[in-house]
Amino acid sequence: MKFGGTSVADAQCIRQVVDILEKHYKAGDELAVVVSAQRGVTDQIIEIIGKLPTAKDDSAIAPLIQALGKRHITTLEGAAPDFVAETGAVIEERLISLQNILFAVYNLRELTPRSKDYIISFGERLLAPILSAAIRQRGIPSTVLDGCDAGILTTPQHGESTALPESDERIKKRLEPLLGNEIPVIMGFMGCTRNGIITTLGRSGSDYSASIIGAGIDADEIWIWTDVDGIMTCDPRVINDARVMSSLSYIEVMELSYFGAKVMHPRSIEPAMRKNILVRVKNTFNPSHPGTVIVRNGQRDNRVVKALTYIDKVAAININGAQMIGRPGVAKAIFSILADHEVNVMMISQGSSEANISLIVDEVHLNAAVHALTDLVKQGIVREVTHNHDVCAVAVVGAGMAGAPGTGGRIFTSLGKAGVNVMMISQGSSEANISFVVNQQDGPRAVRVLHDEFRLSEECDE
Ligand code: ADP
Ligand code: ASP
Ligand code: MG
Predict the structure, then answer these.
(1) Which of 430, 345, 35, 349 is nearest to 206 (CA)?
(2) Which residues line ligand 2 (CB under 6 A)?
(3) CA angle, corner 221, sides to 215 and 223, nearest 5?
(4) Which among 242, 333, 352, 397 could disulfide-bond with 232, CB atoms 3.0 to 4.6 Å apart, if both were Cys?
(5) Ligand 1 site, residue 204, Cβ cutoff 6 A
(6) Does residue 100 form part of some domain?
(7) d(CA 36, ligand 3 centre) in Å
């Protein structure tokens, strides 16, 4: 079971988490728990460390440490009153260590990807001991493990590392002796390299940790506890009548999370899928709701389109040049230079004239991408590179689209009727996803039109 940041945001929430754990433990379930940082803590740390290397002074450090101390100790007092001395000392020690590291970053005026990973793992390092103490407060034994202790070995790609296959065996060895005898609490979001260097798994990485751990122990089920009743037909902040879906396939959830559905980390399905483990998404604050079940083949239903995602933090890049026509290796040059600059390409489209390739990238990568591609202009491989920041990407997801003719027609006809201009279209070969790009200002309307067109708020066909 994995609990997200909102589920552990304060003492009251943590008591609710322990209610859930206690119920399952007493019913004889063997449980391992993965936990995130408290809501907002990772963001808070990232914001400060980003500025430290160029800050005029170190005055931002003390307020951060004080705020983290106050919040975590208050949470501890409310969630595990008998363990305030013991666990409080652990928290204080970690805060001192964090403070020292932050001073070092300021003094060295340097933040390497490796040190950044260690620093941003502190949200989890501070919170996990509190949840474990809250479990012991109920008389259930519990120990804390960081991601590395729990056996998660990763690639050295700091900030976005991926679990290595040998993690499975290590996780099993570390956790199996504990299962059933206690509830181990594992810090999400982190692992380590074969050399023991701490890595993080990407933002929202605790979902991925849960799936890696679940696969490692061959869990019967992986439960992701969050603050909504399950995976919805669209981000509820964009579509207010978005509906919770009872069942989805692995592929559908992967397509949704790749395209920005903030409900789950994009790589978190892969380990579960590899071991064919059922994943449930449930609401910590409404545990009797059945939530969403994710399995290999989602519930068979008549729905072709199941859900939509909308991302506005993207940018479009157009690469033009008649010299690209019929010339092998242009795409290779483009994608290798982007990869060298660590730019992740989210969408690609190339017309059959071959004189134009369009890409969609995360807006944080735009400058790096344009800079890299300008090199190809200088080398004469392409003629010009333009970009547009004012766009958003929408993905239409449903495994039933594969082999069902007419869905594309319906999507673009309804957008056309609503006067939404589509700038770029792409369909993956899994056929479980059709994505397109529109002007930023048209994004929410495009999503609304399609949510209505495919009657996604209605229970009807499920
Ligand atoms: P946690 O802290 O539990 O990991 P997150 O904030 O990362 O929770 O993810 C849950 C949030 O994802 C929800 O509160 C919701 O606002 C947002 N969200 C975005 N898209 C969807 C979707 N399709 N279905 C459900 N929630 C979504
Ligand atoms: N705390 C990490 C983050 O904010 C991981 C997570 O919440 O899953 O990204
Ligand atoms: Mg999350």
Answers:
(1) 35
(2) 5, 36-37, 42, 123, 188-189, 203-206
(3) 100
(4) 242
(5) yes
(6) yes
(7) 8
Residue 160, domain CATH: 3.40.1160.10
What spacing in Å lies between the alpha carbon of 223 and ligand 1's midpoint? 15
Nearest residue to 382 (alpha-carbon basis) of 291, 293, 318, 459: 318
In the DSSP assignment, the letter for residue 324 is: G
3-state helix, strand, coil in the chain (%, to 5): 45, 20, 35
Domain hosting 62: range is 2-227
Is 185 in contact with 135 (CB distance < 8 Å)?
A: yes
CA angle at 303 for the pair 299 and 307, rounded to the nearest 5° = 90
Whose alpha carbon is nearest atom 2 of ligand 2? 204
With 80 as the cut, is the pLDDT of residue 353 above it?
Answer: no
Is residue 284 domain-resident?
no
Residues 6+ apart with CB under 8 A from 250: 269, 272, 273, 294, 295, 296
- Residue of the nearest CA to atom 8 in ligand 2? 204
State which ligand 2 atom lies nearest to the alpha carbon of 201.
5
214 lines ligand 1 (CB under 6 A): no
Query: Cβ–Cβ contacts within 10 Å for residue 143, how many?
Result: 15
Asked if residue 190 and residue 57 are part of one domain, the reply reads yes
pLDDT digits (tens, 9 = 90+) for 195-228: 999 999 999 999 999 999 999 999 999 999 999 9
Question: What is the tens place of the pLDDT at every residue in 85-114?
Answer: 999 999 999 999 999 999 999 999 999 999
**Residue at token pair 């899994």:** 430
Assigned domain for 263 exists: no
The answer to whether position 377 is within a domain reads: yes
Dist. CA 377–CA 362, nearest whole Å: 22
From atom 5 of ligand 1, which residue's Cα is the shortest distance away? 263
The per-residue DSSP string of 380-448 comes to TSSSEEEEEEEEEEEEEE-GGGTT-TTHHHHHHHHHHHTTPPEEEEEE-TTSSEEEEEEEGGGHHHHHH
The pLDDT confidence band at residue 460, using thresholds 50, 70 and 90, is low
Distance (Å, whole) CA 239 – CA 243: 9
pTM for the whole thing? Answer: 0.92
Work out whether the CA dihedral 174, 210, 160, 169 comes out positive or negative.
Answer: positive
Residue nearest to atom 7 of ligand 2 (CA): 204
Number of domains within the chain: 2
The CA 262 to ligand 1 mean position distance, Å, reads 5
